[in-house]
């Protein structure tokens, strides 16, 4: 397993994942119960540890429920029918966000250098 290229991390705590999406940890646990695709591992203490793939699943669920306004049943149905389509879109959104961040940083560096 490779570390995340942005954060350098292999695993994330439930608190970190919840903070990424601005939701509570109880919301993440609820989604874990409701969506079969979301199955983070647990360490020896019983704490959930999320991989990049788990975070991507949370992102898909978040997009359907919070951004697109699907009901829980509608999101479950959408995921069962077209999960790979939604996962592909989330990967694309993440790539675009990283590219945008890189370009903004580059623009700042070039502006600072030209002064």
Oligomer: single chain
Q: Ends: how far apart?
A: 43 Å
Q: What is the percent of helical residues?
A: 55-70%
Overall residue-averaged pLDDT value: 86
**Extended strand count:** 2
The CATH top-level class label: Mainly Alpha
Q: What's the tally of helices? A: 4
Classify the secondary structure makeup into a structural class. mainly alpha
Biggest β-sheet: strands ordered side by side in the sheet: 1-2
Largest sheet: 2 strands, antiparallel
Low-confidence stretches: none
As a percent range, the share of strand residues is under 5%
Shape: globular
Number of domains: 1
What fold name goes in the CATH topology slot?
Multidrug-efflux Transporter Regulator, Chain: A, Domain 2
Keywords:
115 residues; 4 helices; two-stranded antiparallel sheet; mainly alpha; 67% helix; 2 strands
Your description of this structure?
The radius of gyration is 17 Å and the shape is globular. It has helices at 14-21, 25-34, 52-67, 72-114; strands spanning 41-42, 48-49. It is built from 4 helices and 2 strands, in the order ααββαα. The termini are far apart. The mean pLDDT is 86. Helix 3 packs across helix 4. It has a single domain (14-114), classed as Multidrug-efflux Transporter Regulator, Chain: A, Domain 2. The longest helix is centred in the C-terminal third of the chain and has 43 residues, at 72-114. It has a two-stranded antiparallel ribbon. By secondary structure, the chain is mainly alpha-helical.
Short description:
This protein has 4 helices and 2 strands.
